[in-house]
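The passage that follows is intended for readers who have already worked through the single-chain material. We present the inputs for a multi-component assembly, then the predicted structure in tokenized form, and finally a short commentary. You are encouraged to pause after the input and sketch how you expect the pieces to fit together before reading on.
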Amino acid sequence: MSAADAVTDALGQLHSRFAGVREGLPAAYIPQLARADPDAFGLALVSMDGHRYSTGDADVPFTLQSISKPFVYALALSVLGLDEVGRWVNAEPSGEAFNAISLEPATGRPDNAMVNAGAIVTTALIPGTPDEAAFERILRFLGRFAGRELDVDEEVYASEAATGDRNRALAYLIRSAGLLPFDPVAAVETYFRQCAVRATAVDLATMAATLAHGGVNPVTGETVVTAAVAAQVLAVMATCGMYNGSGDWLLRVGLPAKSGVSGGLIAAGPARFGLAAYSPPLDATGTSVRGYGALVALSQRFGLHLM
Ligand code: DON
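Having made your guess, compare it with the prediction:
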């Protein structure tokens, strides 16, 4: 069997093995997400030579939610550099849930850019330009990772905007510590829009593969970020990307990763591949149940653990 056939075969087997899992529920605190099809399940892998492998519902668009966070962090690092970004948001695992009141006692900084508090600050750090508002800049940047223009699911955006008071409260709390360089309401609106950007599992695997490939999109050949920024983002994904499940994830899967409450999950094998799963039912940490199961199994079967 060729290497390509082996990958296709492995994804197909994982899909069959986990499609029947019935645990977890789609997120309900953003009402529009609760309407997702609980049976939807897709897997995708993009190799460093730009080959795209997929199975199941890998072409179904869904919203990025927290999977947007590492890519917006990449933009902030590209524009401002690690030291300046680090003045506003730290890079320590919080061990807490994604929506925790994550503020370091000493400085008031959010613990890291993967929890909501840190992601809102990161989004607020992105300056608009004379030609482009901050959100348009973020959207175009996300599209360069995916290798195509992405758009916003306006219904999901409106649903989160109507119910997202906890995130607004986090933004006000951070501003009270003097650490939000922007109007809290506007920062959170931009953050909600970034969370509502729509992509497929194949797009997400391409985005993860771009980080794994030193910042160069392996499908389009475009340099999206420097190798240094790609490495910085992968480091924070490894330690913080799965929130209060980050330790368990690094132990069992051993790859930098990021989950999202819409049921997306990405993982990156540096210099090897980008992976993505989509399946809306979530566990208690906000991670796709089937996605988690499939990636644990894949990592074990192919020895993908980095350690
Ligand atoms: O801010 C929120 O709550 C959502 N827009 C994103 C949270 C999320 O995806 C957490 N990840 N598992």
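Commentary: The mean pLDDT is 96. The beta strands are 42-47, 52-56, 62-63, 151-152, 197-199, 257-259, 264-269, 273-278. How closely did your sketch match?
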